Task: inverse folding
């Protein structure tokens, strides 16, 4: 049957016609005789461009399947008894473990630590409004809180329409035991 096709890897994507019942064998490989048609640049007296393309390099167009070449068909062997296959062990996924703790089977609740043990670190937080009109004032304010053991966690500046800039700052430090 005459089909249209393309060659795999052809950068020009040239279409051709070929007969899937006509093929030749050379050095153990099978080739279809393909016809690219006439080259329009050569005029009306041009000849068809003929080539031979390996069977495995032909892509049929139009959703049609190629007629199988009998010499390429492998004989069906009698099914040999199969050896038992080893079970595949699933490898753990790479990366971080999930943040959400899985539910304990049967309880339906998340495990929660309710009692603080010795050595657990607790923090206390402080929220302050800081005047940041001048960099020296801001530096002095942050250094004074740092001297008391407070660490700056977050700061957001708020610019007033009528002038002046303030900032809200959040500080934290380890809770002191009493």
Result:
């Amino acid at each position: 049957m005459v089909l249209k096709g393309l060659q795999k890897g052809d950068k020009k994507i040239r279409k051709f016609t070929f007969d899937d019942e006509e093929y030749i064998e050379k050095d153990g490989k099978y080739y279809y005789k393909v016809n690219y048609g006439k080259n329009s640049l050569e005029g009306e007296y041009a000849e068809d461009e003929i080539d031979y393309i390996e069977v495995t390099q032909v892509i049929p167009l139009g959703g049609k399947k190629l007629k199988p070449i009998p010499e390429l068909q492998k004989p069906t062997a009698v099914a040999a008894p199969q050896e038992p296959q080893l079970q595949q062990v699933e490898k753990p996924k790479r990366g971080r473990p999930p943040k959400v703790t899985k539910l304990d089977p049967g309880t339906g609740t998340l495990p929660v630590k309710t009692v603080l043990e010795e050595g657990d670190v607790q923090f206390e937080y402080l929220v302050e409004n800081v005047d940041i009109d001048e960099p020296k004032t801001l530096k002095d304010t942050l250094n004074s809180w740092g001297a008391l053991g407070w660490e700056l966690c977050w700061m957001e500046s708020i610019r007033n329409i009528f002038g002046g800039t303030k900032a809200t700052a959040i500080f934290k430090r380890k809770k002191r035991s009493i």
Notes: Helices lie at 135-147. The mean pLDDT is 79. The longest helix spans residues 135-147. Residues 2-70 form one domain.
